[in-house]
User: Fold this.
Amino acid sequence: MSSKPRETANVGAGLWKATGMWAWLLFRISGVLLAIYLFAHIIVISTGHFNEFNRLMKAFDNPVAVVADLALVVAVLYHALNGVRIILMDFGIGIQRHKIMFWSAMAVVVICFVLFAYVAFSYIVTGKGVF
Amino acid sequence: MKARTVSTHRGGMFSWLFQRITAILLIVCLAIHLSLTHLANIGKVDSANVAARLAHHGLTAVDIILLAAGLFHALNGLRMVLMDYWFSSRTRALVLTGVLWVVGLAFLGYGIWALWPWIG
Assistant:
């Protein structure tokens, strides 16, 4: 830490050092992608109103779509866990330890992703779910 | 310094607070939503599968919360991003906010209309 006051160094400059800058940028990118996805999702699922639902849902059982869904899961998990970190920091939790907070959140992302990936690849290989 | 950097945003207190309230609602409801669709029912999602789930009022509530909280969180988030760029002046920001509310309410109405046959 520099000679700056502790609080300013951590919050003002600290957040803008490498890790925080990437965390912020990826948060924005994943957020914008998820917002676009939300509107696409509402439109696709609303076909339930027009009896087109089953035909469309079949397309999402295709292995390419299952892998694409996993990419979506990564975006959701990253955005959610980084968001939890931000809310905790709003309460003053982890401000002095923001790198540890960030990497702990990323560990939770990886653990959740492994579960989703295991189920998805099991489905691609065996054609059946795990649960 | 700390208070200004972390706790507020020029988007306003309402926007800041509701972004966090909807975030927590989304984490809880999305965990339920993704567990049911991507883990428990992978490859099995069709009309009958969805209908069986939406027969439970609790899961209908989860879907409506996802729709409303998701729309608010997504559009308010986009608003924050856009206000960092071309929509930084007060007038443009107000127009943007108005347009996003219209889009959000329209999609909320459309989403509930689309859900209606499932709820029955």
Observations:
- The mean pLDDT of chain A is 83.
